[in-house]
Design a protein that fits this description.
By secondary structure, the chain is mostly helical. Helix content is 73%, strand content 0%. The protein has helices at 2-53, 57-73, 75-93, 102-116. Helix 2 packs antiparallel against helix 3 (75-93) and helix 3 packs across helix 4 (102-116). The N and C termini lie far apart (103 Å).
Length: 141
């Protein structure tokens, strides 16, 4: 009987150690998985911040030159272009910590399209609002 109890105690100790090792490995796996996710999120945030901080100067200067040319021809369109440009830069420079929703991204894309098409009648394939191009080209002279 004593030998049987020693054998059962040895088996119990062995199974307990195996369970402890397996639990430790599982906890280590979850910890590493969490660290990997945090690293991925930090990398995504840094990429997003780098994209937001990189403003293409030629877009800004082309927009400003186009606005300057519109001031005498169509002051209302020039004013709207300045407002769109300021909204675009405000949206681009604010909220670097949070991801934007689809509506804000679509509004920024519309502003970029509108500002890119200032004075370029043939560059824009759509005429106002259409089913194929939902972005209005309102800055044509």
């Amino acid at each position: 009987m004593t030998g049987s109890l020693q054998w059962e105690a040895g088996q119990l100790l062995r199974h307990g150690l195996i369970a402890l090792i397996m639990t430790s490995l599982l906890l280590r796996y979850f910890y590493l998985q969490q660290q990997w996710q945090h690293q991925q999120q930090a990398e995504l945030r840094s990429r997003l911040q780098a994209l937001q901080s990189r403003i293409r100067p030629h877009f800004l200067f082309n927009s400003l030159n186009s606005i300057a040319s519109l001031i005498e021809i169509a002051p209302a369109k020039a004013e709207q272009a300045v407002l769109d440009l300021s909204d675009l830069f405000r949206a681009n420079l604010s909220g670097s910590e949070t991801l934007s929703c689809w509506g804000k991204s679509a509004a920024c894309a519309k502003a970029i399209c509108a500002l890119s098409n200032i004075g370029w009648v043939s560059a824009c394939a759509c005429n106002g609002m259409s089913a194929s191009c939902p972005i209005p080209c309102r800055y044509r002279c």
